[in-house]
């Protein structure tokens, strides 16, 4: 690092644009485009007998109506199953438009294209679909029990079944270890559905150039490169003729890593077919019933432990609600299964999950992606053990921690990237010490007693997690210094507000020794960078950050070589500061990076004064050598890829103090403290912002949000009026402290931070409410009404 | 989420508005603040053939406070009434309730009279009107305006006595009687949400300073605001008395039992606070 930019709380460079209405979101584009709207199934499970579009044909401004029968070739095939897995024996995906059967309310059946969205919706309202009702399956236990099938050819509605088992050091299996343990407990845990719920929904806008036979698609996506490949493959277009761009994206949180969505195929196809620009902007109701949800699981836990709280055996059986389809495979329950172990070394572990189909919206990753459920399980288990033994909850956790000298620590399982689950670094005892100090853990009992004396009910809770971040396979970075001294950075993955324009520029500015203002960053535009995976799994900083750093180092090396020639100095004596290459010990010997960029590109034609220096009669270079050396390239630019052997493991611990109203059962979070370790910090302010946002979503999942399906598979609260996302008034101030244990796996020593905040919140709030109320909390979210019911049941109301 | 087609009317004066409403009858719908109507249209849950936008009729944007009470015109926004010190002096329950109506930006646009006509059983202003025994003035083109008492105005969930062709031009909220105090307590899942339950309370002391009359209006626990006379009920029996006289229903946010329990808790708190306010008024008048 040649400057201090890396690690500094640099202000977010994207904020002036985004906060003053200058952002360019999907619906800001293509004001003249035709509008698409969809007739979606009003039933959870039904067979389509007939579609009668005749009533809609008279709508003024109607352009086209499409059903499944209109879709050609691969567009009429089921959508891809993105992540196949041997345990996913019965993977099923939807057709872009329903073929014979609809399997959840909201599944698209008919696509309408009209002059504007109003008219398209008017036409949709006039299309009549005749359905034959089939019996809906709602709820995972119902799915296994009822005999009704979501997919006729999937017995018992089980799409996947998987067991992972890690024996204890002395070779015992979990059942045996639990049997032999001095103490054992069994309990059930429930977590309900929520959803990513970005404020900007999905959206696709497509332009077909009939002369050039090329397609440009804008999508509000977390992966423009993969959407591009899916569109090219499905519509049979040559890849170089397809461009996909993610404009400013108003939040993703996982739902936009799912792809291709039906609309990402249908809108470009309609644009090509009609030879017109077509746009579809998802509305909020569509987002609720036709995007994706997550979280719902039922967990059965058996645990054996000794008198100090050491976990000797843990057996967890998970029923995972996968909704109607499995396009994203079984990543979510795999992450739950593997990340459940958290910062602990336990005896024997066995985890079994069944991924079950129901007639509800499909389940794909939502920020945290299965970890909140796993952490809920493990942390509730720690609290159950503490309660059973009468031990301090922090002490029981500490007794089970992996110690700092045990890294790299192999948990003996296979992680979501198909690689061994090996933790790279961490310091869990120090993290706990910091958290206890931050929240005044040891002083709380006195505070609680004092409050109780005044009729107030307080409780404190704690939750720990380890998060595998920065999964592969790779990302790339391209860095170019142009002859005006500007630095252009591009990477293929997309941004949804994380602050990539800032942190990637910080990395480039630090590596190259240039002022931050001279660096610009482009993400998610396949015209600039074609190879990428996407923004998910807290991977952007780790993957693209390191790739950009490597690309910068390549550029720097070349710059120093050229500068050394020009200055007749040894490259090892050169450094770059403020965009100028200097010779150590000789303040007068220097050359601007801009000039180095000019010299890097031998020119025949001079287009300005500066460029004259690189032309053939300017006197540079040796007459005995070619202007471009073998193996070299013109220009001051570099492209590098970062591909890690495995994930890097961030960690954190949260604690909360809550108050529960003895009369109204209102739950108020009085304090919320976070200790977070994501290795070296690129920008502590942005990391804190990520944590705050994550905690806010976690509070939503813990106290407010749920998807309420009735027995018919109707989503009863598909609006922001009844799906209760917390407002700023419901989110506590978050107190944070950072611990930095650098990752040994990547050049920058960093780990991911994007999802961290959300992961343990339900576990922490459950722990705190349990402490306040003195009865077990085994189900989240928890509303005042449910707390009131629990009090009645436990006779403490 | 785009509304179905409708004809838009923007009358310039009351006469023109009433004429359009008379002509369109049950197909006409008045647009004032639009804070409930526009979402209903966009969700296609309402499909009136004609929208009659009254926002250009300035004479409806009135707020008058007298010794008798506060008269609120059809275009007076929540925020205007909330901020009016004259209105608060005449009837403090108005400001107490309006602070709980949704969020400031919604109060900047939504109207008090619109809220009354919308008649949501969980809304605050219908309860205020009902508790105080106020009234709504309904005008029509082909006859004299009629004044409908609150007791007759709220007829069911989202249903009022307003007939097709009529326009609610104003509402009247009686002033606070001497030696009286008011309070509004409610419990919402999130700040600004419709309450799971809420209580408006009015306590009046007798000339000797003893508690004379106690009345509450309950929201969120019935089809309309439920007014209960609790005169003579001991303070520690208020919660029980309220719970015994309401029949709340369960929904996705709260069980019926919880709502009943909550209404009792809030009633005790609201009556206690109103009692304190009444006591202060009594002491002030005595000095």
Automatic annotation (TrEMBL), chain A:
The Aldehyde oxidase/xanthine dehydrogenase a/b hammerhead domain, residue ranges: 20-135
UniProt protein name: Dehydrogenase/oxidase
Origin: domain of life: Bacteria
MF annotations from Gene Ontology: iron ion binding; oxidoreductase activity
Record bears the keyword Oxidoreductase: yes
Signal peptide: none
Short name of any one Pfam family annotated for the protein: MoCoBD_1
Native organism taxonomy: Bacteria, Bacillati, Actinomycetota, Actinomycetes, Streptosporangiales
Sequence segments annotated as region (Disordered): 616-635
Organism field: Sinosporangium siamense
Keywords: Molybdenum, Oxidoreductase
From TrEMBL, chain B:
Transmembrane regions listed in the UniProt entry: none
Superkingdom assignment: Bacteria
Example of a GO MF term: oxidoreductase activity
Pfam families: CO_deh_flav_C (PF03450), FAD_binding_5 (PF00941)
Keyword Membrane included in the entry's annotation: no
Domain FAD-binding PCMH-type residues, every copy: 1-178
Keyword tags: FAD, Flavoprotein, Oxidoreductase
The protein's name: Carbon monoxide dehydrogenase
């Amino acid at each position: 690092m040649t400057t201090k930019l890396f690690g500094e709380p640099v202000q977010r460079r994207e904020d002036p644009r985004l906060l003053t209405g200058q952002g360019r979101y999907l619906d800001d584009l293509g004001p003249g485009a035709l509008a698409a709207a969809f007739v979606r199934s009003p039933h959870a499970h039904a067979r389509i007998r007939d579609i009668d579009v005749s009533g809609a044909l008279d709508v003024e401004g109607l352009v086209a109506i499409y059903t499944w029968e209109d879709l050609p070739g691969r567009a009429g095939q089921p959508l891809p199953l993105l992540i196949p897995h041997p345990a996913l024996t019965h993977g099923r995906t939807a057709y872009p438009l329903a073929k014979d059967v609809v399997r959840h309310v909201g599944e698209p059946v008919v696509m309408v294209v009209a002059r504007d969205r109003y008219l398209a919706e008017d036409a949709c309202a006039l299309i009549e679909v005749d359905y034959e009702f089939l019996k809906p399956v709602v709820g995972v236990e119902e799915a296994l029990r009822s005999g009704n099938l979501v997919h006729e050819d999937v017995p018992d509605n089980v799409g996947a079944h998987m067991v992972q088992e890690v024996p204890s050091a002395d070779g015992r299996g979990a059942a045996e270890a639990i049997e032999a343990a001095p103490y054992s407990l069994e309990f059930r845990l429930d977590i309900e559905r929520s959803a990513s719920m970005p404020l900007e929904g999905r959206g696709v806008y497509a332009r077909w150039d009939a002369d050039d036979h090329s397609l440009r698609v804008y999508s509000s996506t977390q992966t423009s490169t993969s959407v591009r490949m899916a569109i090219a493959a499905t519509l049979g277009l040559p890849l170089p003729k397809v461009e996909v761009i993610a404009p400013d994206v108003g939040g993703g949180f996982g739902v936009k890593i799912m792809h291709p969505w039906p609309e990402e195929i249908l809108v470009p196809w309609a644009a090509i077919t009609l030879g017109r620009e077509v746009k579809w902007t998802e509305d909020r109701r569509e987002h609720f019933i036709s995007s994706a949800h997550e979280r719902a699981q039922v967990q059965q836990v058996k645990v054996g432990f000794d008198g100090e709280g050491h976990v000797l055996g843990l057996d967890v059986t998970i029923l995972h609600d996968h909704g109607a389809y499995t396009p994203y495979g079984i990543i979510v329950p795999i992450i739950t299964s593997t990340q459940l172990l958290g910062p602990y070394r336990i005896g024997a572990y066995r985890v079994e999950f069944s991924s079950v189909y129901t007639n509800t919206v499909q389940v794909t990753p939502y920020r945290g992606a299965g970890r909140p459920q796993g952490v809920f399980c493990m942390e509730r288990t720690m609290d159950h053990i503490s309660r059973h033994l009468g031990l301090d909850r922090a002490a029981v956790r500490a007794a089970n921690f992996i110690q700092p000298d045990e890294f790299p620590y192999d948990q003996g399982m296979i992680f979501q990237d198909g690689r061994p689950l090996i933790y790279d670094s961490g310091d869990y005892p120090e993290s706990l010490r910091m958290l206890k100090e931050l929240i005044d853990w040891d002083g709380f009992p006195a505070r609680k007693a004092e409050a109780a004396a005044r009729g107030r009910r307080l409780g404190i809770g704690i939750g720990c997690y380890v998060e595998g971040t920065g999964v592969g396979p790779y990302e790339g970075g391209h860095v170019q210094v142009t002859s005006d001294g500007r630095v252009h950075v591009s990477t293929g993955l997309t941004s949804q507000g994380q602050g990539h324009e800032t942190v990637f520029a910080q990395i480039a500015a630090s590596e190259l020794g240039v002022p931050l203002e001279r660096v610009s960053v482009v993400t998610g535009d396949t015209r600039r960078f074609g190879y990428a995976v996407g923004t998910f799994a807290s991977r952007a900083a780790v993957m693209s950050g390191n790739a950009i750093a490597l690309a910068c180092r390549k550029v720097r090396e070349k710059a120093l070589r050229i500068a050394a020639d020009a200055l007749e100095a040894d490259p090892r004596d050169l450094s770059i500061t403020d965009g100028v290459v200097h010779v150590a010990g000789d303040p007068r010997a220097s050359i601007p990076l801009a000039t180095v960029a000019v010299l890097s590109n031998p020119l025949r034609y001079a287009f300005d004064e500066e460029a004259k220096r690189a032309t053939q009669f300017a006197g540079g270079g040796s007459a005995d050598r070619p202007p471009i050396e073998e193996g070299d390239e013109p220009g001051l630019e570099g492209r590098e890829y970062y591909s890690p052997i495995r994930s890097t493991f961030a960690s954190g611990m949260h604690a909360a103090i809550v108050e529960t109203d003895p009369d109204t059962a209102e739950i108020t979070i009085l304090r919320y403290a976070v200790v977070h370790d994501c290795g070296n910090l690129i920008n502590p302010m942005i990391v804190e912002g990520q944590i705050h946002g994550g905690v806010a979503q976690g509070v939503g999942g813990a106290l407010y949000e749920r998807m309420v399906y009735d027995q018919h598979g109707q989503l009863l609260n598909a609006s922001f009026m009844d799906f209760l996302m917390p407002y700023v008034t419901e989110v506590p101030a978050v107190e944070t402290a950072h611990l930095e244990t650098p990752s040994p796996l990547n050049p920058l020593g960093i780990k991911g931070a994007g999802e961290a905040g959300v992961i343990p919140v339900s576990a922490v709030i459950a722990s705190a409410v349990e402490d306040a109320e003195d009865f077990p909390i085994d189900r989240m979210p928890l509303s005042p009404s449910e707390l009131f019911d629990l009090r009645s049941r436990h006779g403490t109301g | 989420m785009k509304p179905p087609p409708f004809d838009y009317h923007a009358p310039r004066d009351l006469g023109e508005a009433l004429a359009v409403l008379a002509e369109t009858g049950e197909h006409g719908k008045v647009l004032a603040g639009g804070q409930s109507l526009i979402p209903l249209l966009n969700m296609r849950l309402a499909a009136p053939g004609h929208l009659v936008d009254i926002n250009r009729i300035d004479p409806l944007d009135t707020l008058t406070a007298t010794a008798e009470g506060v008269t609120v015109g059809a275009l007076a926004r929540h925020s205007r009434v909330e901020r009016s010190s004259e209105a608060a002096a005449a009837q403090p329950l108005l400001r107490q309730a309006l602070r709980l109506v949704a969020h400031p930006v919604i109060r900047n646009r939504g109207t008090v009279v619109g809220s009354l006509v919308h008649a949501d059983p969980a809304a605050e202003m219908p309860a205020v009107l009902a508790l105080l025994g106020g009234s709504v003035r309904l005008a029509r083109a082909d006859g004299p305006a009629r004044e409908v008492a609150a007791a007759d105005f709220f007829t069911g969930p989202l249903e009022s006595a307003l007939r097709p062709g009529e326009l609610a031009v104003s509402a009247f909220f009686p002033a606070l009687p001497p030696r009286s105090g008011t309070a509004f307590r409610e419990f919402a899942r999130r700040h600004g949400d419709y309450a799971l339950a809420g209580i408006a309370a009015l306590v009046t002391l007798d000339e000797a300073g003893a508690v004379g009359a106690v009345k509450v209006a309950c929201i969120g626990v019935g089809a309309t605001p439920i007014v209960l006379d609790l005169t003579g009920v001991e303070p520690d029996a208020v919660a029980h008395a309220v719970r015994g006289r309401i029949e709340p229903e369960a929904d996705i946010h709260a069980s019926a039992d919880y709502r009943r329990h909550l209404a009792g808790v809030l009633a005790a708190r609201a009556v206690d606070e109103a009692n304190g306010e009444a006591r202060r008024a009594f002491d002030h008048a005595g000095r």
